[in-house]
Amino acid sequence: MNLRVGDLACGRAGDKGDVLDLTLVARDAEAYRVLAGALTPQALRPVLNRVVPGPVQRHELPALLALKFVLPEALPGGVYATLRPGLHWQKAAIWLLLDLYIGQDGLHWVAPSDSSSGDCP
Amino acid sequence: MKVACRVGAGAGFAGDRIDPAVRLVGLGEIDAIALECLAERTLWPALKARAQDPASGYDPRLRRRLRPLLPPAHARGVRVISNLGQAHPEAAGQAIAELGRELGLTGLRVAAVVGDDVMTLRDRIRWVRSPEAGRLVGAHAYLGSDPMAQALAQSADVVVTGRVADSALFAAPARQALRADEQALAGALTVGHLLECSGQLTGGNYEPIGGAMLAAAGYAGLGFPWAEVYDDGTAEIRLPAGAPGVLNTQTCTLQLLYEVHDPARYATPDLVLDFSAIQFECLGPGRVRVSGARSKGRPPDLKVAGFLELPGWVADCEIGFAGTGAADRARRAADVLRLRLADWREQDVAIDVVGLDSILRAASPAAHVSPPEVRVHVSARCADLEAAQTVEDEVYALTLSGPAGGCSVRSERRARIEVLDGYIDHELVRPSLAWSRS
How far does B248 lie from chain A, in Å, by closest CA? Predict the structure, then answer.
């Protein structure tokens, strides 16, 4: 098993102040079940904390096939305080989830088959 | 179940496109159009403008946005509601009346909703954290739909506001014909929440599973949504006839949950909304029925957004590298900057390579082919302008003393503004209407 979250769901990122919010909408009930099982706050936090700080909260909306993730401390100081280039990097933050792979050894960003190819030459 | 109002989304932020609203009104299917033009931070430049000139402080795009919209809206009797008033809704109302006169629209009734500015009540605001070292330059309460609905009941053709809840802008025109129960209002506010980001509901900022995008002409001509709101608060959301875009249960679900932190308790000034029983039903291409919104009662307080100016600046600079080996030279240049800025506190400086990992950092997928051009980026929190200049100079100095071919340098300085949330008692905030006429 090595599933990419973005093959099971679409998503969107939003922000308010320091808070980053990430929404996933699963393709179908089976995909929702897989995502809800794998993307627990406990499993996600150590992975996401490599990029954004703080805890991860989750709300489940099975009737809408949706999972809502809220990271209350992910954007310290809000949009204007960012040290990333330009403003509103967090619009792309949904790929923190969409590019995650669900593997037997947990969650990671690069598919195992890709890991040998490493960085660009 | 009767139609309470057919309301269109005319804008989803201050810089949003102008033509979709004009096209939507031209279709002749809506009774009202709401334009959301005041994001969380958009008030700050308006506060600065008002401080410089007491007659300004409303959206500088007001005339450009309304000039093509007012004549067709007037001709068809479409009400226009917008938070274009920013920090000075009363002046915005007068400017709209004047624009109406210029356009030959006589008798246009313009209502400005005033009273969201709670700076004089600052001692009564309960901030979620202390304002620390910052200087508070403004404080505005999020108003609900009541004053807008009151203006529309008094036959306003245009209602202009400062800070109000985005969802309330779109719910206000339905209020008069809505059943007088909380669940119906909860439904109308939910529709407002769905419409408030314009093209985000109809295929913008949306990638379906599998990655299919719209054609460029589809994004370029994206239709903004409208909704037929029924008197029980349920609604049918529509993509305008003939307009490109995509409206389905996925785009609706993504927008329903967008920037919502607890789907069972989404606080608006009118009501606390519970989205947990929402249902979307696709009725056909570009038609989605929404039902199941619930109210959890009136919130005890109004939310306040305070603007804090923090001392210092963020310097944000880039230098490009191109040609064979560009990524290697860029990485080396980034390392040079790390050495040159080694005495800066780590948490105050970010150095990375645009084109490789500047946005998603550790989550960036590996590049399998060396990109033909990339940019080294530095952002630094600077105590003063001299420190910002130092960072900018270090980047520029790479053109003479760094890896070969450093080029296309660009830099900007941003003031450090934070939005501080607070709460204030409902009863302390007393909005009123200021009328103008063309």
Answer: 12
